[in-house]
Write a structure and sequence with these properties.
By secondary structure, the chain is of the alpha+beta class. It has 14 helices and 28 strands. Helix 8 runs antiparallel to helix 9 and helix 9 runs parallel beside helix 11. Keywords: Repeat.
């Protein structure tokens, strides 16, 4: 399941808010803006709001999520963003809305004024249903359901495809070689545009200074031109980085071309390529996660693991990523400041994670989709079953109250229970050595690996952990006690640390008492301190110079 929390901007959201997210897009020059939808189909925005790119009607930054009221009732089908940034959004009904930076008419509303609220773009699109959107740094493309491409915005290198270099203030259909073609996929680099047609051909136009158009030259292209070097290769998808291009074929092969100063082409070097070059994913069988022998001998693991099913790039980054049919995710290019020149196998389960953790800036390369996950992990299932009378086969009677547990889990998790329950067929165990809160916390720890107690109660649990020789639990208790120490309870906690031979905790409590000596010596705990402990405390305090003027 996709974890949006991997993007730093989401650290501003609470855990409850994150659980409600169903779609999200992180954007901006530093990954400091985000738009997301919730399970209730509400749209929220958050971040620095450069040029009004949050669509709230102002340019004020917001550290807390704010509802985007102007799109109330709209469901998002796809979304893209530029460098300004500007935002282009298509709804599930095929409508287009734009807002944000507009110095180059990239909003398509006929002006160059920044758009502080979403504007419905209908010029030349009124009878069209938009199914896909793409943004370059300062230009925009949309794809309609009938396979037509419309473009607008910055056009200094011909990226709008109009045949000139004049900026395009409103949507204009891209024609020329695309006139009678059915386009199925679009993408934008910083200042170039790409389209894949239903026959598998790729058409390109715009800036070509790094060979990102794949035409074998470095000259700009003001109108769509077919990539002849891909003749006979059927392309399914295209993805553009800042100045490089990736395509995925129907046979699961990846080709790359364009800028390569960070190794973003995955060719093993840093030389630019003006023609498509194959990207080879390592067919090392050691990367295979399948059991041995191979479960599908007719389709061996090496072929399955190296067949690419998804490619990823973003116009604001020099990073590339791909996912194989075997579920492996590879990355290459600029990765956290390093230049990775060959596809590198990651531990991620989706390409989105590559951009969250390794791209600069940490933005999303597409509209993220978070599927509701009702599946419980083993750990989550165990947590739910603690103290559940409906499934338990053992009851502990402590202070007149029952705590429900499961014998098999206790025997797996605790050496004490492994021996004490071995030949015990009783379904009720009476416990008088420890209090109900302490024993319940101990049993809950066996189900959850965590504790939630006050420092005073943690002292009792520390006693239990020492008795049962549960060293990890002992450390957790000491940590809880350290976090809850204060002048009033410091002596009591010090006494407990000495009693249970928790030397690290003893030293921590002693240092706390020395640092707050004047107040600590006036507490009731100090007045009631055990004689031997008091004598040792005074002696040790003297040795560290606590009584010097």
């Amino acid at each position: 399941m996709l974890d949006v929390g991997k993007w730093p901007i989401f650290s501003l959201c609470s855990e409850e808010e994150l659980q409600l997210i169903r779609q999200a897009c992180v954007f901006g020059s530093a990954g400091n803006e985000v738009l997301y939808t919730t399970v209730n189909d509400e749209i929220f925005v958050l971040g620095t709001n450069c040029c009004g790119c949050l669509g709230l009607g102002d340019v004020q930054s917001t550290i807390e999520p704010r509802r985007l009221e102007s799109l109330n009732g709209k469901k998002i089908a796809c979304l893209s963003y530029g460098s300004g940034p500007h935002v282009v959004l298509a709804t599930t009904e095929g409508e287009v809305f734009t807002w944000g930076h507009n110095a180059y008419s990239q909003l398509g509303n006929g002006t160059t004024n920044h758009g502080l609220v979403p504007c419905h773009i209908s010029t030349n699109l009124s009878n069209k249903q938009v199914t896909e959107v793409a943004c370059g740094s300062y230009h925009s493309l949309v794809l309609t359901s009938d396979g037509e491409v419309f473009a607008w915005g910055y056009n200094n290198s011909g990226q709008v495809g109009s045949g000139s270099t004049a900026n395009q203030p409103i949507p204009r259909r891209v024609t020329g070689c695309l006139q009678n073609k059915v386009v199925v996929n679009i993408a934008c680099g910083q200042m170039c545009s790409m389209a894949v047609v239903n026959t598998g051909e790729v058409y390109v136009w715009g800036y070509n200074g790094n060979g990102q158009l794949g035409l074998g030259s470095s000259g700009n292209q003001p109108t769509p031109c077919r990539i002849a070097a891909l003749q006979g290769i059927r392309v399914q998808r295209v993805a553009c980085g800042y100045a490089h291009t990736l395509v995925l074929t129907d046979e699961g092969q990846v080709y790359a071309w364009g800028a390569n100063s960070y190794g973003q082409l995955g060719t093993g070097n840093k030389s630019n390529q003006s023609y498509p070059a194959p990207v080879v994913v390592e067919k090392d069988s050691s990367c295979c996660r399948q059991p041995s022998p191979c479960p599908t001998p007719d389709f061996p693991c090496a072929a399955r693991c190296s067949r690419i099913i998804e490619i990823a790039a973003c116009h604001s980054a020099h990073t590339s990523a791909a996912k194989t049919q075997g579920g492996h995710v590879y990355m290459w290019g600029q990765c956290r400041g390093q230049s990775v020149t060959l596809p590198h196998l990651t531990h991620f389960s989706c390409t989105d994670d590559v951009f969250a953790c390794f791209a600069t800036p940490a933005v999303s390369w597409r509209l993220l989709s978070v599927e509701p996950d009702d599946h419980l992990t083993v750990a989550e299932s165990l947590k739910r079953e603690f103290d559940n009378p409906n499934t338990a086969d053992l009851k502990f009677l402590v202070d007149g109250k029952y705590i429900y547990a499961h014998k098999v889990l206790l025997k797996i998790r605790c050496e004490h229970f492994r021996s004490s329950l071995e030949d015990n067929e009783d379904d009720i165990v009476e416990m008088s050595e420890f209090s109900y809160p302490v024993y319940r916390a101990f049993l809950e720890y066996l189900y959850t690996d965590s504790i939630s107690l006050s420092p005073e109660e943690a002292v009792g649990l520390l006693d239990l952990a020492t008795f049962y020789r549960e060293n990890r639990l002992k450390k957790l208790c000491q940590q809880t006690i350290k976090q809850g120490i204060c002048e009033e309870n410091a002596i009591a906690l010090l006494s407990a640390a000495v009693k249970y031979d928790a030397q690290d905790l003893e030293e921590f409590c002693f240092r706390f008492c020395i640092n707050h000596l004047t107040v600590v010596t006036q507490t009731s705990g100090f007045a009631e301190m055990d004689h031997d402990l008091l004598k040792n405390f005074i002696s040790k305090a003297s040795r560290v110079g606590a009584f010097k003027n």
